[in-house]
Amino acid sequence: MAINIYIDPDKCVGCKLCLGACPYGAIVVEEGKARFTEACVLCGACVSSCKFGAIIWEQPKKEEVDTSQYQGVWVIAETHDGRLAEVTLELLGEGRKLADTLDEPLSLLLLGNGVEPLASVAGHYGADRVYLVEDEVLAHYRTAPFTDVAVGLINKYKPSIVLIGATSMGRDLGPRIAARIGAGLTADCTGLEIDPQERLLRQTRPAFGGNIMATILCRHARPQMATVRPKVMKKLDPDPGRQVEIVREQVSLNEKTIVTKIVEIVREEGDEQVNLQDAEIIVSGGRGLRAAENFALIRELADVLGAAVGASRATVDAGWIPAYHQVGQTGKTVQPKLYIACGISGAVQHLAGMSSSDCIVAINSDPNAPIFDVATYGIVGDLFEVVPALTKALKREFGQQ
Ligand SMILES: Cc1cc2nc3c(=O)[nH]c(=O)nc-3n(C[C@H](O)[C@H](O)[C@H](O)COP(=O)(O)OP(=O)(O)OC[C@H]3O[C@@H](n4cnc5c(N)ncnc54)[C@H](O)[C@@H]3O)c2cc1C
Question: What is the distance in A from the centroid of ligand 1 to the CA of 351?
Answer without folding.
Answer: 10
